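Narrative of activities, Objective 1.

The group set out to show that a structural description can be obtained from nothing but a protein's sequence at a throughput compatible with the screening campaign. Below is one input-output pair from the validation batch, recorded exactly as produced.
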Amino acid sequence: MYDIIQDNKQYEKDVRIQQLKQLLEDSTSDEDGSSSSSSEEKNGSTHLPSQMRVPSQSDKDNQNTVAKEQRKMQSEKVAG
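Output recorded for this entry:
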């Protein structure tokens, strides 16, 4: 059980690192190639990186599914 918890913590940590790396990459590329006359700005819409949006129920379901699969795989390792 301890191993499952540790695996989940490591997975969540890895996901968060990837999110932060992507956010950093998005923010630095936005600074380099942005112009004030883009079509998005003219239309009044804004582009937010996916890390800044509110997670939907579908996102939460996907995370739960991944966690369940990890627990299942871990329990099969312990049993086997």
